[in-house]
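ENTRY TYPE: paired fold submission
RECORD: A
CONTENT: sequence, then structure tokens
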Amino acid sequence: MMKNKIFLLVLDGVGLRNFAYSNFKQIGEKKNNNVVFWNKTHFSIESLGFNEIKIENQKIHPLTDTLKKAKKDVNLNVFINRTKDKVYNSYKFKFSYKNFNASVKSSLTRLLIFLLSNEKGLKLLDKYINYFERKTKYYTYCKNVLQVEKPSIIFCTSQRHVQSIAPLLAAKDLEIPTASFIFSWDNIPKATMVVETDFYFVWSEHMKAELIFYHPNIRENQIIVTGTPQFEIHFEKNSLMPRSDFFEKYSLDIDKRYICFSGDDVTTSPDDPKYLQDLAESIIRLNNKNHNLGIIFRRCPVDFSTRYDEILEKYKDIIVTIDPLWKPFTSHWNTILPTKEDGILFSNIAEHSEMVVNLGSTTLFDFVAHNKPCGYFRYNQKIQKNPNWDIFRCYKFVHFRSMHSENSVIWLDSPTAIDEKIEMVVNNNHQKQIDDAKKWFQKINQHPVEQASERIWSAIENIITK
């Protein structure tokens, strides 16, 4: 039987994590598929022993990025008009005027937003994006590759990358089926939909309803609920180290119980070091009450700043740093890519910690996969690095409205309140939070979690067959 050739278009670290570092390829090949990674990242997927075609030295049209930025804000304005909800303004980025080129691009973007902030304007922006991308050498290159390789389908691993437009347009013009994966639970309300494909793969029925609501041009039969491979690593028991081995490898005290502090990037949480300090002070107070606790600090993988250094030194007897196993390929933040080993490391941190604390992160779902709770900080620091930043604004984002109940999270509402909440966890009085977090997880991601790749492959095969 002739194998189907499946092109996986990979553009970033998320695509690598979900589809190159998971068992996705192996599952597909067992189903008699020839999996080819069409790779536009700096990482060599071939180094994993996989078949890849590298996309190198190919550029989008000079106007495409400006049109895409305008499209995002126009989309958000349309959402505001449709819902009468100002929360969508929170998803807009500030315009840059740092130099002449940036000023020109920002001015043009603002003009387009002013002129085209309606449904017709969106269609016009899409029309011009596609028009200009078809004029590029990038599009011609992609079309030539596809004419030679003749894949059965192009599966785009992220819906938000402007670099994916030319390959998908080339496939469309050659009548090759296309599909895209909505890679994160918060992406749809943020207006991150850059691509147009024949099919859209989503995490859940909840996400499917969002896609229909925000993009009424997409028909229900184009949307396929599969879940995400993102969390499958947590169900691979052979990846878990014995507690004694893990503690020895990372210089942890075998007699201590550890709380994981999962750092955010500087934009999401400019006062993150202060929250880490609040947690450390809480641990000191609890240890004075005869607890024996410590902190595992895992920084945000793209945060290489020194902003935590003072806190880490001050509380070095309490805090153990376990850095993410990500690799920078250039000096740009978006070329800092995960490794396969980091997924295994993070799963082990979740397994061997009592809980995770942070600011509104999806790590909640990683930890609840190990039956561990999550604490969210929910108070502002008295002295803030950015006085315009407000933690309460973060929890008003649309994706938090999917929360099963307030009990899905352990809320940390003040520095002194942290003690009681951690003590509740170490005394095993947190089953309600675990149960509600699992219900939230079931709402935003199709279960069984560990079968996401199988469901994606079944859907791909159905598309090809039809």
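RECORD: B
CONTENT: sequence, then structure tokens
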Amino acid sequence: MTFIKTLVLLLLSSPAFATSGSPATLDLTSHWVGYVALALFALAYIFVMVEEFTHFRKSKPVILVAGIIWGLIGWVYAQHGLPHSAEVALKHNILEYSELMLFLLVAMTYIEAMRERNVFETLKVWLINKGLTFRQLFWLTGFLAFFISPVADNLTTALIMGAVVMAVGKGNPKFVSLAFINIVVAANAGGAFSPFGDITTLMVWQKGVVGFSQFFDLFIPSLINFLVPAAIMHFFIKDDVAVGNNQAVKIKIGGLAIVVLFVLTIFTAVSFYNFLHLPPAMGMMTGMSYLMIAAFFIRREERKTQEGGFDVFKKIALAEWDTLLFFFGVIISVGGLGFMGYLALTSELMYASLGATYANILVGVLSSIVDNIPVMFAVLTMNPDMSLGQWLLVTLTAGVGGSLLSVGSAAGVALMGQSKGLYTFVSHLKWMPVIALGYITSVLVHLWWNKELFNVPI
């Protein structure tokens, strides 16, 4: 596996324990502390990858390892008379995480609020009752996943579209499997051309290496990534009529208002960053106040109809805290490995040896095996000297590379659980050559469509 090979290269590459260019930074890449840190991080990631079978939440091992890694760093630096160097570096990593966490917390709270107000359920029931053919439903759920995921996260999008497919395709297992593959590819592709579509794009935007509007240069390559495998799978679906269940669902009080406020919150975050030069997280937290104020009036209106009260803090409690804490463990752990010197070493191995284009394509392949969050955070921490076109390339590949395997993205893992055995790792693997064709085509389209951006420095 590429991940294991990289670890082996890291272990064998640096022959000495020395001081790097900065006098306050120690090179720990060939020190026993560095080896232990690498081994612990690899072990933690094995636990993450087998979470589906062990039900041991992924946040637990990575947070533990993050604490041990920085504990080891602090001990070594104290031994060398540099007690505050590690503290400064760790505070920098915590600041990066806090901005990401606050941004995501607001987005997750809005998604939970819309879910509770039946916004997504209404969309699902409307699709089920349209009386579409299986091919029409295949394309409609794919396109909706592609265009919803840039605003909502790909996990929520995949679950909504997956519920539609399961409701109308119970007696057609082949359709369910192909439709789920299509949804995973579409959701990941749609998230790649928007700063809000995926955690990796959000990280790239907050880091400032790609501007808000510049992400939309990836729209055509992302669309191609979805369309190529979908067009091939289309011919393997029987064009029978899907049957709905005539169920009716009504959006609760304030549901549409919350959708409008979510759009306004995104606009606020973008404005804070582009015009006021403030962190997007501050704009999102301002947007949280919109929801909290709206909740007061929704509660007051619901008391008149004797319905249950709408409570924002309950929506905050329902946010994906395991995911948020997992990000903490990953960002702090990778930050620690970077502080030891491993990311500079990896950057030299990948970007100096292979060149930026091949290295960025490899990042996408790697993200199908290892979660794209640590991969992208590592690239951002390495901060290789690349043009805008190359930064967009790595954003694209990290976003869509997870579609190569069912376990390569949150969308794929969630749909495997939802499908009741109709969509599995093996069923996805059978179509990997087709998905890989879409991956390669999208990269080639980006290299051609955005060729002028490869001369634009960051």
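NOTES ON RECORD B: The chain has one domain: 2-455. The CA atoms of residues 177 and 423 lie 5 Å apart.
STATUS: closed
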